[in-house]
Design a protein that fits this description.
Layout lengths: L1 H24 L6 H13 L5 H26 L7 H6 L2 H14 L2 H6 L6 H11 L4 H25 L4 H72 L1
Helix pairs in contact: 1-2, 1-3, 2-3, 2-8, 3-7, 3-8, 5-7
Length: 235
C-alpha cells in the first residue's frame, strides 16, 4: 500500500493526496495514516513541500470528516436506508456509538480521529443526533487533526530514505497513540468514579444530617410536652 501511494502521489502530487484523504472520509479502505505518511515521503524526496503537505493533509481530512458529519445532519436517520451508508453504519454499530456518546460526550469526537474504522460512523452519528453544532464538531476534530496530521507527514518526511525503518516507526507511533488513548480513558474513568463516589458520600452525609435534625426535633417536642403531662397527673 505504501509503495503504491508513493508512486501515485509522485505522479499527481498534492491533488492526489487531497483526493484520497477525502475518499478516506467516505470510508475508502485505505489507511489515512499511511496516506499522510506517503505524502510526507514524497516531501522527503523533494517532490513536495512538507509544510504545504501538512496544510493539504489538514484540509483533506477535515473536508472528508465534515462530509460525513453533514450527511448525517442533513439526512438524519433516513441515511440508514442508503446502501452505501448502511455498510458504514450498521444498526448494531449505531446503537454502540450512541451509548459511547452518552458516556463520553464530546471527547468521543476528539478520540475518533485516532480510531480507523470507527471515525466515519462516529461522525455520522454525531451529525444525525443534531445535538452537536458544526462549529463544535470542526473545533474538536480540528484539534485532533492538528496533532495527528503533522505527526504522520513529518514522520514520512524524515524517514523517506528508509521505508523499512519508516514502517517500524509507523507501528511504534500507532502503539504510542493507542497507549495514550488508553491512559486518557483510564484517567477519565478514575475522575468519573471519584466524582460518583463523592456524590454518593455527600448524599449519605445529607441523609445522616436530616436524620439527626429529625431526631433532635422529636426530642425537643417530647421535652415541651412533659410539663403538661405532669399538670394533668396532679389534677
Amino acid at each position: 500500500m505504501l509503495d503504491f501511494l508513493i508512486g501515485f502521489f509522485t505522479d499527481y502530487g498534492y491533488a492526489a493526496v487531497f483526493a484520497i484523504l477525502i475518499l478516506c472520509g467516505f470510508g475508502l479502505p485505505v489507511p489515512e495514516d499511511i496516506t499522510l505518511v506517503s505524502g510526507g515521503v514524497i516531501s522527503g524526496l523533494h517532490l513536495a513541500n512538507p509544510h504545504w503537505m501538512c496544510v493539504v493533509g489538514l484540509a483533506g481530512v477535515l473536508i472528508g470528516d465534515s462530509t460525513m458529519f453533514l450527511a448525517g445532519r442533513i439526512f438524519g436517520y433516513r441515511i440508514q436506508k442508503i446502501r452505501t451508508f448502511r455498510k458504514i453504519l450498521s444498526p448494531r454499530r449505531f446503537s454502540q456509538i450512541q451509548r459511547k456518546f452518552k458516556k463520553y460526550g464530546l471527547g468521543l469526537l476528539f478520540v475518533a480521529r485516532f480510531l480507523p474504522g470507527l471515525r466515519s460512523p462516529i461522525f455520522l452519528v454525531a451529525g444525525m443526533s443534531r445535538r452537536i453544532s458544526y462549529l463544535t464538531f470542526i473545533l474538536m476534530d480540528g484539534l485532533a487533526a492538528l496533532i495527528s496530521v503533522p505527526v504522520w507527514v513529518y514522520l514520512g518526511y524524515f524517514f523517506a530514505d528508509n521505508l523499512d525503518l519508516l514502517m517500524e516507526y509507523v507501528g511504534d507511533v500507532q502503539k504510542a497513540i493507542y497507549l495514550g488513548l488508553g491512559l486518557i480513558a483510564l484517567i477519565v474513568l478514575i475522575v468519573y468514579l471519584k466524582k460518583k463516589f463523592h456524590s454518593k458520600m455527600n448524599a449519605l452525609a445529607e441523609d445522616h444530617h436530616e436524620e439527626n435534625v429529625a431526631d433532635s426535633t422529636s426530642s425537643q417536642e417530647g421535652t415541651v410536652s412533659s410539663p403538661n403531662e405532669n399538670t394533668d397527673n396532679k389534677s
